[in-house]
Task: inverse folding
């Protein structure tokens, strides 16, 4: 914005102003600006965690003192304009969240092969050719699941709820890591079919099936599965669980990508059934640390602890 750049890691980082497209059109941004774009975006805790990591890095390396991470509310129909303007305004990197991850694939100059396979990007870095897109959600998921449950996705039967941007990255990660089988449940059949078709060439011998979320016909799902919620059902405090967990063959563990509220109806049900469970805070940290690695070259394992501490 016009005026001095806010200090990296200021105590007010969690109260970072929500910028609008009007700010992007008229403002100038000093130092090395970064931002997350979404709609809505006011709930995002990414500025708090990134600015804390940048402040810690600045203590050892003064170049990071001028880096600052903001949040910008960008409606989907203005994403193309926002990406053009932010490149011209000197932004070094961007994160994309709901609802931009799939649409942005068609708007970037280059795309990392793993993000192309997922058909979704959550991290952009400025290059001389324009924005280059990456996807760090899969990395964040694998790291968070390993941390929460003591072992990652390899060898597990997985039940994935959802077929949006986050589910795409999760599904590709499950296959890349060698999950035992993958069942995907989604409300809208067309989106489910599109994801299953995208995965077919990647699946090799791993069984992949798409199931209607509302069907209640889940006999093919084995007991001992890892259930991953990648739907946005649960973001509202009164939202029900996307599936009645008790109706599934008994899962081994439940991971909900949602972290706000910290306990969704799905996680409450998992706890009541005595299942191991975790919310999406760990994933937020690890995908964010990987994004910062892409922008700065600093290894994700170095910044992840500071980011986790900033989220409390
Ligand atoms: P998208 O908008 O791309 O996808 C939303 C998904 O939720 C779709 O599968 C959609 O189904 C489903 N859905 C939405 N409303 C309902 C409903 N009422 N009943 C059943 N299904 C529903 O969002 P993303 O994939 O980007 O994000 C999904 C979730 O993951 C969000 O809650 C997001 O906050 C979280 N997330 C967390 C991360 C972390 O770091 N912890 C990282 C990335 C995402 P349909 O196809 O039928 O519309």
Result:
């Amino acid at each position: 914005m016009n005026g001095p750049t806010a200090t990296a890691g200021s105590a007010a980082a969690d109260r970072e102003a929500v910028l609008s497209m009007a700010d992007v059109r008229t403002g100038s941004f000093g130092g090395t600006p970064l931002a997350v774009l979404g709609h809505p975006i006011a709930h995002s805790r990414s500025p708090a965690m990134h600015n804390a990591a940048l402040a810690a890095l600045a203590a050892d390396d003064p170049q990071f003192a001028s880096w600052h991470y903001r949040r910008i509310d960008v409606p989907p129909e203005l994403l193309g304009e926002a990406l053009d303007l932010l490149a011209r305004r000197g932004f070094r990197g961007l994160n994309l969240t709901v609802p931009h991850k799939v649409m942005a694939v068609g708007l970037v100059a280059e795309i990392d092969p793993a993000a192309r396979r997922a058909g979704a990007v959550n991290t952009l870095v400025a290059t001389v050719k324009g924005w280059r897109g990456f996807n760090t959600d899969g990395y964040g998921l694998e790291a968070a699941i390993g941390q929460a449950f003591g072992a990652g996705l390899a060898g597990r039967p997985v039940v994935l709820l959802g077929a949006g941007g986050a589910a795409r990255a999760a599904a590709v990660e499950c296959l890349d890591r060698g999950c035992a089988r993958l069942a995907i449940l989604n409300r809208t059949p067309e989106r489910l079919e599109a994801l299953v078709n995208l995965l077919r060439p990647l699946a090799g011998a791993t069984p992949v099936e798409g199931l209607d979320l509302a069907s209640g016909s889940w006999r093919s799902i084995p007991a001992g599965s890892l259930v991953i919620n990648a739907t946005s059902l649960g973001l509202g405090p009164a939202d029900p669980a996307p599936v009645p967990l008790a109706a599934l063959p008994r899962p081994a563990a439940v991971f909900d990508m949602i972290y706000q509220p910290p306990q969704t109806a799905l996680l409450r049900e998992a706890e009541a059934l005595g299942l191991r469970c975790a919310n999406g805070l760990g994933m937020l940290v690890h995908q964010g640390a990987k994004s910062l690695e892409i922008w700065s070259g600093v290894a994700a394992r170095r910044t992840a602890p500071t980011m986790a501490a900033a989220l409390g």
Notes: Residues 98-99, 101, 137, 140, 162-167, 186-188, 191, 213, 230-233, 235, 242, 257-259, 280, 283-284, 287 surround NDP (CB under 6 Å). The CA atoms of residues 176 and 202 lie 8 Å apart. The chain has a mean pLDDT of 93.
